[in-house]
Amino acid sequence: MAFLVLSMSIFAGVPAAGGDVRFLLTGSVDSTGRTASGWTSTLWTPKADGEVQLELNFAATADLRLEVRRESDGQWIGADLSKRNPKLLTIPVQAGVEYQVAVWAMSGSSWFAIADAANPTPPGDSERPNILVIMTDDQRRDSMDEAMPKTLAWMADQGTRFTEGYVTTPSCCPSRASVLTGQYNHNNGVVTQAGPAFDESTSIARYLS
Predict the structure, then answer these.
(1) In this structure, how many other beta carbons lie within 10 angstroms of the beta carbon of residue 49?
(2) What span, in angstroms and rounded, lies between the C-alpha atoms of 25 and 100?
(3) Using CA atoms, how far apart are residues 204 and 180, in angstroms rounded to an integer?
(4) Pairwise CA distance, residues 159 & 6, whole Å
(5) Tell me: the pLDDT tens digits for 125-167?
(6) For the chain, first and last CA: distance in Å?
(7) What does pTM read for this prediction?
(8) Strands 76-80 and 63-70: what pairing?
(9) Closest C-alpha to 47, from 116, 95, 113, 92
C-alpha cells in the first residue's frame, strides 16, 4: 500500500447541503485519557457580527460537550450540554473578537468535527490548506519510479517527498482502517483482513462529507 499526500492552497471548506462549511476544529477526545486528551479547544475569530451556528458531530457511542467562551476575559458565551448528536449551538459573536471553542468527552472516546456553516471562508481566503490523500493498494515502493515517473516528478517537484514512512500495522485492511479513522486497530476494531468493518460514522470521509 502506498500513500500520496498533496497539500493545496485552495478553498478550505467543502460543499454541503445548505451552503459551504468551514471546519473550526477536528480531532479526538477520550474521557479516560488513554487514547487522547479528555478535552481540546481552538481559538476562532469571526469575520462578521451576528449569530452563528456551530455543529458538533461525533460517534454515537460517546457523550461529548461543546462550549464557547470569549478568550479575552473567559466570559461564557454558550454551551450545548445535551446528549444529542449532532449538537447545534447558536451564539452571538462580534467580528474580530477571539473566542475559545472547546469540546470534551463526558464518557467514551470519539473523533469529532466542529463546523461553522453560517460563516464560510471565501475562496482565496483559506486559513488552512486542503489535504488530499491518495491511497493505493498492493503497490511496491519503487513502482512509481518505474511505472509513473512523470507523475512522481510532478508531485515531487511541486511538493515534499517523504523518504521514510512508518506504520503501526503493516497489513492491508487494518492499515487502511487506521488511516481512515485515525485510530489504532484495537480501537477501530479492524484487526484482520476479514474485518469486522469499522464504524463509518467516525471516519475522515464522514466528517468531510
Answers:
(1) 11
(2) 11
(3) 6
(4) 7
(5) 445 556 667 777 777 777 777 777 777 777 766 666 777 777 7
(6) 24
(7) 0.50
(8) antiparallel
(9) 95
Half-sphere exposure of 186 (CA within 13 A, CB side): 3
pLDDT tens, 54-105? 988 887 778 899 999 999 999 999 999 888 888 889 999 999 999 999 998 9
User: What's the grid cell of residue 123?
Assistant: 475562496
| CA gap 110, 26 in Å, rounded | 11
The torsion angles phi and psi of 187, rounded to 5 degrees, stand at -100, -40
Q: Is the peptide bond before 196 cis (omega within 30 degrees of 0)?
A: yes
Tell me if 91 sits within 8 A of 125, measured CB to CB.
no
Please tell me what DSSP assigns to residue 200.
G
Distance CA 96, CA 93 (A): 9
Do 123 and 11 touch, CB atoms closer than 8 A? yes
Is the omega angle on the peptide bond into residue 92 within 30 degrees of 0, that is, cis?
no
**Under a CB-based contact definition with an 8 Å cutoff, are residues 81 and 64 in contact?**
no
**DSSP run (H or E) holding 100:** strand 99-107
